Amino acid sequence: MYQLFGSKDEMLAASLERRPPGYEAGLSPGPGEAATPRERILYVFERLARASAEPGYHGCPYLAALVELKDPGHAASRVARDAKERLKEAFRAQAELGGARDSGLLARQLMLVFDGASARSGAGVESLDDGLATSTATTLLDAAGVG
Amino acid sequence: MYQLFGSKDEMLAASLERRPPGYEAGLSPGPGEAATPRERILYVFERLARASAEPGYHGCPYLAALVELKDPGHAASRVARDAKERLKEAFRAQAELGGARDSGLLARQLMLVFDGASARSGAGVESLDDGLATSTATTLLDAAGVG
Q1: In chain A, where are the structural domains located?
Q2: Which of A69, A87, A104, A123 has a CA 20 to 30 Å removed from the CA of A59?
Q3: Number of CB pairs, chain A paired with chain B, less than 8 A apart
Q4: What pLDDT sits at residue A82?
């Protein structure tokens, strides 16, 4: 294994670079798709709730890598940070399309909710089954003027 | 060390049971204190922002224990879960005093923001210096009718 990857660090980084999570597909509108920016953002939170209900769910692997490694320079931390930045940028782009008053701020707020929901449900101290993450995101979208 | 604590698990649990974080004091009003329930809730987020600006901050130690151990039965996980439950219950009690439409839901939403903000700032992928966590909590308090 180490001959293939060079180091344990690179192996962990490679394991995080496997196919992106399913919600990323929902953020790019298909041809003729009617979804609104608001719907695309909320889709991410619905997808998170579905994932968190699966047996063996332990939260977002990118966030777990960042929390556990506590080392921003680690190869896996860089992969994780890039993935988190992509999601935040997707939120920001959709928020802007949806007419948010401050799309950058809204994207950062949505990331707090996404990572809090992923960490808490992954640790088994919260359940997202009743739409908690989606309804929290909805409140933030409403307040930011994304209709 | 192990003679004192019996096991490594108990040692980790004991290390999490040291004095509670500073924000807990702000949640119990002192004699003659004028703070409103809303102010007491927001104090927790302001305290988190201040803590996250300290050098060497790595996020809430309770959340880190839950994320890293991935074992709800571990002695340290139980200590961490209890601490998280105390904060959620303090939020709920203040939300009720402040006239929240659904104090239980608001408390769970605030915990998503608290844990998301602690994890992201602790991992170095977000900064709370501009009041991000407090303003997000404010939006949720407004929407829940806590004036």
Answers
A1: 8-144
A2: A104
A3: 114
A4: 94
